[in-house]
Amino acid sequence: MNHDLNQIKQDYQNISVPEALKPKVTDAIAKAKADMANADGGNSRKTALPFHFPFAKTAWAAAAALALIILANSSPSISYAMEQIPVIGAMIKVVTFREYEHQDNQMEASLKIPEVQIPQDGTEGNEALENAAQELNGTIKAYTDEIIAAYEADVKAAGGEGTQAVGLDYEVVTDNDRLFSLRFRQTITMAGAAQSEKIYHIDKQAGKMVTLEDLFQEGADYKTPISENIKQQMKEQMAQDDALTYYVDSEVPEWDFKELPDQANFYVNESGKLVIVFDEYQVAPGYMGIVTFEIPTEAVAGIVKEGYLK
Amino acid sequence: MTTPNMQKMQQLVEQELLSSYDSLYRLAFTYVKNEADAMDIVQETAYKAIQNSASVKNEAFIKTWLWRIAINTSLESLRGRQREISYEAPVEYGKEDVYMDFDTIDALDVLNEKERAVVVLRYFEDRKLQEIAAALEENLSTVKSILYRSLKKMKIKLTEGELCHEP
Fold this sequence. Notes:
The complex is a heterodimer of chains A (310) and B (167). Chain A is α+β, with helices and mostly antiparallel strands and 310 residues long. Chain A has helices at 5-14, 21-38, 56-66, 127-158, 223-240; strands spanning 78-79, 93-104, 107-117, 164-175, 179-189, 193-203, 208-210, 265-268, 274-278, 291-295. In chain A, 29% of the residues lie in helices and 25% in strands. Chain A starts with a helix and ends in a 15-residue tail after the last strand.
């Protein structure tokens, strides 16, 4: 196997340096100085190596999360595509309405932006559903415009020096008699990679977009039982497997998961169970990725509206 | 006791660390091949360098001295990893880290520790053969022959001119 030296060099230069490294270096410098000062002058070299900073892991996760708000160079080209995607579900279909592709040096974006449509072929026109579809399309546009704007700003800011890859893909995660849910998966790769998801839902029967709150009776406290159930699951999983870490009862209480956010991501899985989705870093260190918890329907029995969950 | 001269050297080492920590990171990365270890190595390099900055006699050598520390720390880390292997079973997480395609960097794997340092510093960091010789505590002709040998191992063909060309 022959390799081109220039190719290797390029890959070498592409090794991206984590944002978190600089603070680590300054910490190490400060610590080295402090240790020398504490060592009564002469005995400075006695300090044992290797050393570890407390909470290094947590700090890294924080830094990595922050590292996402940065970067990169020329004007991206937008390609509009009316690519037809197979019809999903009976009543609502999804097509890739537009693709946004851009590449320049180490900056790269690839977004698939869908549109939902209500087929008009013969079936009785459902005006409410049509409106919900329009509303969802508007939401999708706002969401994806935001991602593109952030990326373009990064491209500009980095002036050709940036390294970033943004990807967005979608899938229909739920399509049953009642709910149609479209999941977006966004990946930003810089020093590390961060994934986040957004899931939008249409209640087919009511013909409107719904959020988690709408699955429950008005005024019902759904957050507490779900949050408690999640904490329970976190603890059980961590007790069973050392490799898992969630922010629960941790050394850094302010990082701990306390309660579901208002706009919690969720979907209803094939067995009709509610699944709560957390983005990377939200409730666990970055290496855990996107984490999901299936909520037993019994946990919300009595407050969930008829027809959503089984 | 710290003398003004030692303090000055420490300051220079600190400046050099802050301006070249990214090169040190890449160099470490070619050895350990993962972000977390490479970061630890740079961190440890910084710590060692500040603590021992008094041992640098000539400020012109700070850079090469830092490389040497980084290379040695990388090797320590690799050896430590071999020792740890028995009780640190690989853990499977839900999500894989996203790595770039390092197929070509893996081409460096055919090289031994010293050869790798020479290739990285000469071709990727564009350092002079003299500097590399200083960093590795070898003489110039040895470094040249290491370079020849390395490229041969990697099956990379260059013309004579390319090899000895100095930036």
